[in-house]
Amino acid sequence: MSETAATTQPGVIERELHIAARPETVFRFFVDPERMVRWMGRTAELDPTPGGRFRIDYNGSDIAVGSYLAVEPPTRVVFSWGWQAAGDATPPGASTVEVTLAAEGERGTRLRLRHTELADAAVEGHAQGWDQFLPSLVSAAEADRPD
Fold first, then answer.
1. Which phi and psi angles does 13 have, rounded to 5°?
2. Comparing C-alpha atoms, which of 107, 145, 115 is closest to residue 28?
3. How large is the average pLDDT for residues 106-110?
4. CB contact set of 110 (below 8 Å; sequence gap of 6+)
5. 88 and which of 9, 83, 120, 145 could share a cystine (Cβ 3.0–4.6 Å)?
6. What is the pLDDT averaged over residues 2-13?
7. How would you write 3-70 as a 3-class SS string?
């Protein structure tokens, strides 16, 4: 992952990075269950339509749940986010993740991720999670690109 920019502010996480794959390729990793699990989780149930289900099972006990709020291929996807576990600081749908994708050069994408509406106590853990998973997204998308 090159040229990564990271910002964290109260209730918000922002990440920006370059991926050597076109936006059409990267976009599929947010809406296709088979591609999603290549970089995040072990199973995914995704219905990438506004109001559609967003559910990722990471390991059998950590399960992210929300719904798609906006799906604009291949430049933008927005979904609500939270954890299925009772009592978690970020319950299902409590926060919002917005991903924008812009073409960068002939075969690249500038990905901007903004995760908002997080409780202050949840920001650090979510920031660590995105910092763990985004490099896996870069590797998976770059390996998936057509030449």
1. -125, 135
2. 145
3. 94
4. 16, 17, 18, 101, 102, 103, 104
5. 83
6. 69
7. EEEEEEECCEEEEEEEECCCHHHHHHCCCCHHHHHHHCCCEEEECCCCCCEEEEECCCCCEEEEEEEE
* Statement: the pTM of the whole predicted model exceeds 0.90: yes
pLDDT in tens, 32-87: 999 999 999 999 999 999 999 999 999 988 999 999 999 999 999 999 999 998 88
State the pLDDT at residue 60.
87
**Strand 12-19 versus strand 95-104 pairing type:** unpaired
Q: What CATH number has the domain spanning 2-144? A: 3.30.530.20
Residue 75: DSSP 8-state: T
What are the boundaries of each domain within the chain?
A: 2-144
Return the amino acid letter for 74.
P
